[in-house]
Amino acid sequence: FSFTNPSLSMLLTLSLVLLLVHFVTKNGGGNSVPNAWQSLVELIHDFVPNPVNEQIGGLSGNVQQKFSPRISVTSTFSLFRNPQGMIPYSFTVTSHFLITLGLSFPIFIGITIVGFQRNGLHFLSISLPAGVPLPLAPFLVLLELIPHCFRALSSGIRLFANMMAGHSSVKILSGSAWTMLCMNDLFYFIGDPGPLFIVLALTGPELGVAISQAHVSTISICIYLNDATNLHQ
Q: Are 167 and 96 in contact (CB under 8 A)?
């Protein structure tokens, strides 16, 4: 067992989430007039039920909201974890595919379990749309089963690719700008504002991408849950 950079990054993320909850729940809980911390937590909390209600159809409100706590945990953890790589000398844990795969694969397993719980063996019909001619059934089952299984990878690959590409670009340009600034050469010093301005221009959009990936992950989980519970309806 070794304590690695990803372990430290995820531990810091968990600490930030718990610290935010502490600020809101101290002295007996929320206030009738919310402060800044309470407003932030309420905003994060209210964000999850909306995509759950919009994306998961065919279920009663109570059943839909049973999924909200699990989705809320994933969304909040992603919301705090992704932007950490924008901090200088920090570590982007979601730029490692093994980390994102370790987060997406259990979600896929859980959604599959939910599908069997709600539909029994009829859940297997997700690989065979209704009305398909019998001779085409074996081919369509294979074609539907492969993308269904790749859902365990797709969420992790999407998050990994977006985080690695954007954060790597910002860090490479930042390192280039700093190196040019530190060189004792007038030509490099004059040319330094170019990479520096590019870094400043990319910082805002990259921070937006990091935050929006939490929203994308939430929508993906809701869509997969809708497919597992409602099948081809």
A: no
**Could you tell me the pTM of the whole model?**
0.75
Q: Which sign does the torsion angle of CA 116, 122, 123, 124 carry?
A: positive
pLDDT tens digits along 183-204: 666 665 565 566 667 777 777 7
58 in a structural domain: yes
Per-residue pLDDT, 187: 61
In a domain, 233, yes or no: no
Residue 101 belongs to what domain range? 5-228
Number of folded domains that form the chain: 1
**Number of CB atoms found within 10 A of residue 197's CB:** 12
185, exposed or middle or buried, with CB in 10 Å at 0-12, 13-18, 19+?
exposed
Closest CA to 13 of 98, 70, 89, 74: 74
Q: Give the pLDDT confidence of 202-211 residue by residue, as tens digits.
A: 777 778 888 8
Residue 20 lies in a domain: yes
Residue 192, SS3 per DSSP: coil
